[in-house]
Amino acid sequence: MQFSISDQKGVHIPEELFGLFFEDINYAADGGLYAEQIENRSFEFLDCYGDRGDYYAVPDYGYAWSPFGEGEPGKMQYVTGSPVDPKNPHYLRFTAAKAGQGFCNRAYRGIFLEKGKKYRVSFYARTASYRGNLTVSVQKDGRVFASAAVACVLAPEGTWQKWNRYETVLTAEEDAEGAAFVIALDRAGTVEFDFVSMMPCDAVDGVFRRDLVEMLRGLKPGFLRFPGGCIVEGNTMENRYRWKESVGRPEGRRANFNRWAVHETSAENGWHAQYAHYNQTLGLGFYEYFLLCERIGARPLPVLNVGLACQYQSFERVEVEDPAFDEFLQDALDLIEFANGSPDSPWGKVRAEMGHPEPFGLTMVGIGNEQWQTEESDFFARYEAFERAIHEKYPQIRLIGSAGPDVVSPRHTMAWDFYRKKAAQKENFCHAVDEHYYMEPEWFFDHADFYDGYPREVKVFAGEYAAHPQKGMNNPRANNLEGALAEAAFLTGVERNSDVVILASYAPLLARAGYAQWSPDLIWFDEKTVCATPSYWVQKLYAQNRGDWTLRLDGQEKELAGEGIFVSASLCRESGEVIVKAVNRNPEEKELKIALAEGLSAKGPVRIQELSGRPEAFNSVEDPNRVRVSERMQEETDSLKLPAHSFVVARISR
Ligand code: AHR
After folding, report:
1. What is the rounded distance in angstroms from the CA atom of residue 38 to the CA atom of residue 157?
2. CA nearest neighbour of 74 among 193, 197, 163, 196
3. What is the DSSP letter of 368?
4. Which of 496, 518, 580, 624 could form a disulfide with 650 if both were Cys (CB 3.0 to 4.6 A apart)?
5. Is residue 540 within 8 Å of 20, Cβ to Cβ?
C-alpha cells in the first residue's frame, strides 16, 4: 500500500480547531471538576420527577446528610427564616442532646483522602443555647483519618447570633476511601449550619479538581464550549441555565435541579429515575468557566438560552414578540460586558470584584444549544433577533448558530439553507454552524469524506460528536477502541477540510463512574482515579500533532479508505516536520509506503505514536491503562507499519 505526499499546501489548519465541550452531565461539575467534596452543601437539594412537559421537584433539603454518633441521634431540622443568603434559604438546625452527637455527609461515594494532603473545611454557623465547641473530622468505622477542633464564637446566653464563617484545614493522617465527613458538638445544645464545604487545598484556583484540569490541559484545547448542552435549555424554563445566577459570591448562587436528574424517567419507575437528586450548586459558574479557559489556554465559547426550554423535553418557550424575550437578549449583551467590559461598567465591575479586572477576551458566543426550526420554536427568528442585538453593540463578536440534533434529517438541511441564504445577505451573520452527531462507528468510517463537498461560505463547528459502539448509563465499555478509531478516521477528513470545519469537539467530556447518564464520554473518573478513554488518546494525538497546513494528497485518501486505511498529512511550521496520521481498521497489520515530494526531503528519524489493540478494548477507573499510546523512533522515512486496529501518528523530521 502506497501513497505520496505532495509539497503543495492544502488548507491552513486553524489553531483552535480541536477544543472541548463541557456540559454539567454525568456529574461533570458538582461531584466532578468542581473540587467541592460535600454533597448538598447548602441544604437546598430537590428530588426530581416527571416527563415531557410535566416536570416537578420535591424538596429534600436533608439529602446526603444524616445524624452521626452512637446511640440516640441528634435532631436534624431543615429550616428557613434567616439564611446566610436568601437565594439559598434553607439551612440545618442541629440539636445535640449530649456531647459527641453530630451529623455527617455522604459525599457521593464517601470522602477520599490522600495521606499528607490538606483539605480546607469551611462552614457558616450560628449558636443559641450552646456554650461548646465543634470537631470536624473524616472517619470510617470508628477510625479517624483527619480531625480539627473549631472554637465557636458564642452568642450571649439565650440569643441567636449572626452567622459566623469558620475555616480550618484538615491534614490526612492516612489514605481513606468511602469515609464520612462529620461535624460533632462537644456538649448538648443547638447550632445552625449552612454552606458546609471541604475542598482539597491543591484545587486549581481553589475551585477545580487538579487531576481533571491536568487532563484537560493535556488536550491543548483551542476553545471551551460551556455550560451545555441541554442544561442551557433546561427541562423547563424554570431550570434553564441563567448565567447571572452563577456569578458573585457562591453563597448567593441559587441552587437548582439539573436537567439530567430526570433522564430515563418512565411509567415503570414512577417518573423518578436513578439520578433524581442531581442538582446544580453553581459553585462552578460563568466566572469559573472563564477562569478555566485561561488555565487551560482555551478560547471561551459560552452558549446562551434563546427563550426555549429543551425541545425534546418541553413545550415551554418565551415567544419572540413577548416583551419577556428582551431579557434573553439583554443576558447576551450583559454577558459580553461581564467578560470584556471595563471594571467601570456594571457587569465588568462584577467580574473585577470577583478578582479579574482584566477582560477575559470573549470573541465567540453560541446562540442556543441544539435548536432547530419548527413553526412553534421559530428558532430562526430567535437567531436573527440575537444577531441584530449583539452585532449592533458588538459587531466584532462571532456568533455560532445551530443545525439541530443531527446531520441526516431535513432539520439539518433547513438550517443550512437558512444560514447560507442569510450569510449571503449580511456579512458576519454567522461565524460557524454547530452540528451534532452521535452515530455508530461504521457511520464515521463511511463518512470520513463528509466535509469534502461542503459549501465553503459558512463555516462548521462540529460541536458535539462521538462514535457510539454501545450506549447506556454508566457504560465505560461504550468507549472502546473501535469507536476511537472511527473518530480518528473521521478526523482525517476534518483536518483535510479545516478550511470549512474550523472548530470541533467530542461530547460529552466528563463522566463520574457510577453517576453517568450518558455513555460514551471522553474522560471517566471517580473520587480517586482519572481515566483517559481511547477516544481521549485520539483527541490528544490530534491536538498535539495538529500541523499548520495540510499537505495535498489529491484523492489518494479515498482509494486508501476503500482498503480500510484513513490518512492525512500536514506540515508543522515551527519544526518543519511532516506529520502523517493513519488509521488501519483492518484485522491485520498493513505496511504503508510513503513517497514524499522532493521539496519535502526527509532526513529522519521518525517519531511514531501508536494506539492499537482489540476493537472492544476499553479503559475504566478500575483498569485505566489497558489502551494507551506507545511511542518509538524509527530511521526509515518511507514506510510505516500500521498494526491491526490502530491509529498511528508519525512525525517525520526534515
Ligand atoms: O452531549 C449530550 C447531549 O447531547 C447534549 O446535552 C445535547 O446538546 C445533545 O443532545
Report:
1. 31
2. 193
3. S
4. 580
5. no
The residue contributing the CA closest to ligand 1 atom 6 is: 229
Cβ atoms of 302 and 289 closer than 8 Å: yes
Estimate to the nearest angstrom the gap between the alpha carbon of 607 and the chain centroid: 32
Q: Number of helices (H) and strands (E), helices first, in the chain?
A: 11, 36
* Residue 527 in this model has a pLDDT that exceeds 80: yes
CB contact at 8 A, 324 and 255: no
- Which atom of ligand 1 lies closest to the CA of 507? 1
pLDDT band with cut points at 50, 70 and 90 for residue 159: confident
Q: Using CA positions, which residue lies closest to atom 5 of ligand 1?
A: 229
Residues 6+ apart with CB under 8 A from 604: 634, 635, 636, 637, 652, 653
Answer for the pair 645, 584: CB distance below 8 angstroms, yes or no: yes
Report whether 221 contacts 20 (CB < 8 A).
yes
Q: Give the least confident one: 148-162, 210-224, 609-623.
A: 148-162
Active site residues: 370
- Take atom 2 of ligand 1 and give the residue whose Cα is closest: 508
CA dist 149 to 94, 118, 134, 138, 195, Å? 18, 15, 6, 12, 18
Predicted confidence at residue 161, as pLDDT, reads: 80
Helix boundaries (H) for 344-409: 346-353, 379-393
Cell of 407: 446531520
Q: Is the CB of 369 under 6 A from ligand 1?
A: yes
User: Which one, of 409, 487, 387, 412, lies nearest residue 447 by Cα?
Assistant: 487
Query: 283-306, pLDDT tens digit by residue?
Result: 999 999 999 999 999 999 999 999
Residue 344 burial by CB count (10 A; 0-12/13-18/19+): exposed, middle or buried? Answer: exposed
For residue 13, pLDDT beyond 90: yes
Residue 422 grid cell: 442569510
The β-bridge partners of 257 are 279
Which residue, 507, 509, 568, 544, is CA-closest to 222?
544
Distance CA 294, CA 288 (A): 10
The answer to whether the CB of 305 falls within 8 A of the CB of 323 is no
Cis bond upstream, residue 441 (ω within 30): no
The x, y and z cell numbers of residue 630, run together, are 506507545
Instruction: End-to-end CA distance of the chain: give it in Å, rounded.
Output: 23
Q: Is the CB of 464 under 6 A from ligand 1?
A: yes
Which grid coordinates belong to 112?
477520599
Give the DSSP per-residue string, 467-530: E-SS--TT-GGGS-HHHHHHHHHHHHHHHHTTTTEEEEEES--EEETT--SS---SEEE-SS-E
User: Kind of pairing, strands 256-257 and 223-226?
Assistant: unpaired
Cell numbers found for residue 7? 509539497
Q: Is 320 exposed, middle or buried (0-12, 13-18, 19+ CB in 10 A)?
A: middle
From the CB of 405, is ligand 1 less than 6 Å away?
yes
| Nearest alpha-carbon partner for 313 in 366, 257, 248 | 257
C-alpha of residue 403 to centroid of ligand 1, in Å:
13
**Neighbouring C-beta atoms of residue 37, cutoff 10 Å:** 25
Q: Which three cell numbers stand for residue 387?
A: 444577531
Q: What is the mean pLDDT of the chain?
A: 96
pLDDT bucket at 149, cuts 50 / 70 / 90: very high
